[in-house]
Every structure is written in structure tokens, then in C-alpha cells.
Amino acid sequence: MRGNPRIAIAIVTASLAIASSASAAEPKRFLGFRLLDLENQSVKWETPRQRVGATVTYAFATKLVTTEGARNCGQMLPPDKAYTPSGIAQGEFEREVAAAFRMWEDVADIKFRKIDDDDTADIVIGAQAVPVGRAFTNVELKPAGEPGRKVIARSLICLNPAQPWKVGFDGDLDVYDLRYTIAHEAGHAIGLDHPSPAGQLMSYKYDERHQGLQPGDIRGAALLYGARSGGPSFSRAASDITTGSTGAGPAGETKQGRDFGIGAGPDTPPR
Question: Per the domain annotation, does 26 fall within a domain?
Fold first, then answer.
């Protein structure tokens, strides 16, 4: 268990309303991503400067992990409490988690390294001690290293052990795929928010139309950490990109799928 975090800010991975700061007279262009806006700033690992890479460690909870002040994942058990009831083996689970992190490594200058110490890891993955929703992420910030700018200190990802889980898509949207879910939660853990109901991996609706990251996901990760050399590029002019909301989704965007967390509708106010 760590001491009291000076700042613990939770990212609710469902039940968030779409936020748009664009006025009717001056609409923002939909870029397919939205950066986390915590304390009126975007946040990322290691440095607040955008397009600068980072190396992030992750570990699986090996005991009860309690984080005082956390809004989500405040108490986590080892993740086997979530995947074992669904007949998923430890090795298979860990491979799916590694594959989820590789999605982000393949497109941005961010590296993930697995370690065994859940006390010192940057990202800790576990099962909720008190089951709710599907999956959530909690982001904790460090005190400002430079005036007005903070970076991520620790992120927690927790899965609901009372829900079934699966490996691979089969069209059943009531059972979530582990790789897709962990990749989505990892996006929050590195500084991305929900941009829209659907269309991107970071959208707040779970569906099985996309196997991997979509153009908006890639743009967002590349803005935060820089594009990976040789990776796909979906750039826009710098004037198009803001550190807050990138606007609501394009007109007519589908809202099919299941919400990632509690399952409230898109009109639910942010928590």
C-alpha cells in the first residue's frame, strides 16, 4: 500500500457525457481523440511536454492494494479473481495484457515494461475488491515539477470479478474481450479520454467492429508521446489540436455497443 496520494483523480471509464466546448458559431473539428483534462491541463507520463516519449512500468496486483483517496480502484485484489471464473489461464491473461500495451507502443513513442513489484509499478492491474460496472481506471498526479504542470504519478486499472470475460471477439457484447478492454483502460492510464460514443477504441461504447486502434486513438497518443518511427501517421495541423476537448463526434455517429463501466447513458453527467 502506498501513502496518501497528494492528488488522486479518477477517470470514470463509462457513464461520461460527451463534452464539447465548441460554440455553434465556431465548431471544432472532430479529430477522433480527446486528451484527459485534469485540473485544467492535459496529463502524461514523465514530462508535461507533448510529443516527448516515456517508459512506463506495469505490474499485476499480488495482494490487496489499497489506495487512499482513489475514486476508482481504491481496493484491488489480484487479477485472477476476475479472469479465472471465466476459464482464462494466467499465461493467456498476461499475453492479452502485453498485446494491449503493444497496441500503443506500435503507434507512439511510449514503452511498457512489466515488473513484479506492485508497490513501485507505474500502472497496477487488478480485480475490484468491490465489484461495480466493468472496468475502470484511476489516475494520480504528482505535484507540479514546473509551475502549473503536473505529470502522472500512478495509474490503476481494475476489472470487475463479477462479470464474465473472454479472449477474442464473438459478437456477444455482453461479455467483454480482455485485450480490447485493457487497451482502452491503458489509453486512460496514459492520458486519453473518451472522444465520442463510438468509432475509436477510446470511445466509451464497447463494440467489436474494430480489432485495434483507430486513427483518432493514434493521433491522440502521438500528440502526447510523439509518433513511433515507422508507425502509422494521421497528423493534422497544429492549429487543429487542443489539449482539452476535441469536440463531439461527427453528426450521425452510431451509438451502438455497450458502455464500458456502469452502463449509464450518454446523458449522464461527468463524475
Answer: yes
Indicate the pTM of the whole model: 0.82
Tell whether 106 is covered by a domain. Answer: yes
Is the pLDDT at 49 greater than 80? The verdict is yes
Whether residue 267 lies inside any domain: the answer is: no
- How would DSSP label each residue in 103-138? HHHTTBSEEEEE-S-TTT-SEEEEEESS--SSEEEE
Give 241 or 156, the one with higher predicted confidence.
156
Predicted local confidence at residue 261, as pLDDT: 65
Name the nearest CA neighbour of 160 among 77, 270, 230. 77
Which residues span the domain enclosing 82?
A: 7-252
CATH of the domain at 130: 3.40.390.10
pLDDT at 141 exceeding the cut of 70: yes
Cα–Cα distance measured from residue 206 to residue 35, given in angstroms and rounded to the nearest whole number: 19
Distance CA(213)–CA(107), nearest Å, equals 9
Give pLDDT, residue 257.
78
Domains held by the chain: number: 1
Q: Enumerate residues 6+ apart whose C-beta is below 8 A from 59.
A: 114, 115, 116, 117, 118, 120, 121, 123, 124, 125
Helices within 145-200 (DSSP H only)? 178-190
Query: Is residue 263 domain-resident?
Result: no
DSSP annotation of 86 reads: G
Give 139: exposed, middle or buried? Use CB within 10 Å, 0-12, 13-18, 19+.
buried
> What pLDDT score was predicted for residue 28?
56
